[in-house]
Amino acid sequence: MSAPATLQQRLAARDWAGFGAELDRHGCAILPGLLTAAECRDLAALYPQEGHFRSHIHMARHGFGQGEYRYFSYPLPDLVAELRAGLYLHLAAVANGWNARMAIGTRYPGTLEAFLQQCHAAGQTRPTPLLLQYGPGDFNCLHQDLYGDLAFPLQVAFLLSEPGRDFTGGEFVLTEQRPRMQSRAEVVPLRQGDAVAFAVHHRPVRGSRGDYRVNMRHGVSTLRSGRRHTLGIIFHDAT
Ligand SMILES: O=C(O)CCC(=O)C(=O)O
Ligand SMILES: [Fe+2]
């Protein structure tokens, strides 16, 4: 058997133009099977190892939902750091295209390292990648992961558990609030190892009179049974 592809090879093999077009059309796009089942298991197994994390949030205490999550501390585990830097390379062009269409002046540098230097200079120094854990009855309220003035407009979530086998319910949900119109919901069907990229806050939508801006939120519907883990990759650091 040939050696499994490295993460760099797996990322390089993707159709990034098609992915960018999907993000432009829908505000979200799936990267199927980016992580192996073993990588998903290994990442989820980090959850109880407190040494990897800077903080532990119980969502119910903050009115965020029910369930818990932990923000990684620096240095990030190798796989998390590689995913964050590797995905950024491909998402920066989409982010810059969105800002141009929304008449927002900010442009993002070509590498995560350069973007994080900007965050750190602005006082946003705390790492934001996180692991989430849900049990029966848990859910994640619709929200936006903004942690300061600097915000990269896209983020990525990886489903680490297998629907149907490890848990039921617990669907990833996006809503889109359109100006002077009612909101639209989208359920994103994910399998273990899939990633979904989506808008953190705003995205441009093409209308008959040019682009307009919609307000996006994401969350997770109630888990009916089992246990669900997710890896969240947010590119901006937090104050
Ligand atoms: O558990 C999920 O699928 C949602 C995770 C989330 O809110 C995030 O990655 O920012
Ligand atoms: Fe989130």
What does this structure look like?
With 239 residues, this protein is α+β, with helices and mostly antiparallel strands. The protein has 6 helices and 15 strands. It has helices at residues 7-12, 16-26, 37-44, 59-62, 78-101, 112-121; strands at 28-31, 53-58, 65-66, 68-72, 130-134, 139-143, 154-159, 167-169, 172-177, 184-188, 195-199, 202-207, 210-220, 223-226, 228-233. Fe (ii) ion binds next to loops. InterPro entries: DUF2086, Oxoglu/Fe-dep_dioxygenase_dom. Residues 125-238 form the Fe2OG dioxygenase domain. This is Proline hydroxylase.
Compact overview of the structure:
The chain has 239 residues and is of the alpha+beta class.
Q: What secondary-structure arrangement, pairings included, does this model have?
A:
Blueprint: H1 7-12, H2 16-26, E1 28-31, H3 37-44, E2 53-58, H4 59-62, E3 65-66, E4 68-72, H5 78-101, H6 112-121, E5 130-134, E6 139-143, E7 154-159, E8 167-169, E9 172-177, E10 184-188, E11 195-199, E12 202-207, E13 210-220, E14 223-226, E15 228-233
Antiparallel strand pairs: 1-11, 2-4, 3-6, 4-5, 5-15, 6-13, 7-11, 7-15, 8-14, 9-10, 9-13, 12-13
